[in-house]
Amino acid sequence: MKTIAVIPARFGSTRFPGKPLALIHGKTMIEHVYQRVKSAALIDNVIVATDHPEIYEEVQTFGGSVMITRDNHESGSDRIAEVAEKIEGDIFINIQGDEPLIHPDLIDEIVSLAKKSPESVITAKVKIENEEDIINPNVVKVVEGQDQNALYFSRSPIPYKRTQENTAYYKHLGIYCYPKQILMDFIKMPKSRLEEIEMLEQLRLIENGYNIKVIQTTFDAVGVDVPGDIQKVEELLGGFVR
């Protein structure tokens, strides 16, 4: 099964315009992400999908594969679907373009399960260790059933703890692995009720009866949301081991 990793890279971030071109230890963020993904063993091809000529030129400069996509996509999944319509592939994995510390082993874990579960979307979770993250609405939580299929994603703490016993909470990592047909189906669906309430597009799949399998990993995501996050990533980058 041919597996394509697509990195959506939008220029017009409200909190951090031009974010993919921000320098981290002298290299642009999009190059850091691209090289991380490229080193995953189970990826056949990596493509940056962007709406901006400067990002396009930067990816070409460091020798990466890049495609110009429309500038009116509402989500990264929509941008990935445009790429999937134009190239051959069986599995398309959405890699966030603002996570320069994405770990290749996490990508391989997800792709490995995707090849065994061609009827499901695959994503990942990591145990929340910081209690503040449990109540932080920017940290999306996930719960799943015994079959590893997600039951719900929420910005609120789930499950609700009524007793004092220890309860583990898990952060959803924004990485998705789609079988091509499910990706094509997904972008044709109207926004769902719960999706609009929580502002989480993955709920559209659940509301329409699709399975999202969730793997647990130890590789936490460290995203860049604002310029101040660059220093934090630079400090962590030196500790990365393949």
UniProtKB/TrEMBL annotation:
Question: What Gene3D superfamilies does the record point to?
Answer: Spore Coat Polysaccharide Biosynthesis Protein SpsA, Chain A
Pathway stated in the Swiss-Prot or TrEMBL entry: Nucleotide-sugar biosynthesis; CMP-3-deoxy-D-manno-octulosonate biosynthesis; CMP-3-deoxy-D-manno-octulosonate from 3-deoxy-D-manno-octulosonate and CTP: step 1/1
Q: Which GO terms describe its cellular component?
A: cytosol; membrane
Q: Which GO terms describe its molecular function?
A: 3-deoxy-manno-octulosonate cytidylyltransferase activity
**Enzymatic reactions:** 3-deoxy-alpha-D-manno-oct-2-ulosonate + CTP = CMP-3-deoxy-beta-D-manno-octulosonate + diphosphate
Question: Which controlled-vocabulary keywords does the entry list?
Answer: Cytoplasm, Lipopolysaccharide biosynthesis, Nucleotidyltransferase, Transferase
* EC number(s) per entry: 2.7.7.38
Where in or outside the cell? Answer: Cytoplasm; Membrane
SUPFAM superfamilies recorded: Nucleotide-diphospho-sugar transferases
Enumerate the Gene Ontology biological process terms.
CMP-keto-3-deoxy-D-manno-octulosonic acid biosynthetic process; lipopolysaccharide biosynthetic process
Instruction: Write out the coiled-coil annotation as residue ranges.
Output: none
InterPro entries reported for this sequence: Cytidylyl_trans, KdsB, Nucleotide-diphossugar_trans
**One Pfam family this chain carries?**
CTP_transf_3
Q: What is its main location?
A: cytoplasm
Q: Is this entry keyworded Nucleotidyltransferase? A: yes
- What family is this protein classified in? Belongs to the KdsB family.
What role does it play?
Answer: Activates KDO (a required 8-carbon sugar) for incorporation into bacterial lipopolysaccharide in Gram-negative bacteria.
Name of the protein: 3-deoxy-manno-octulosonate cytidylyltransferase
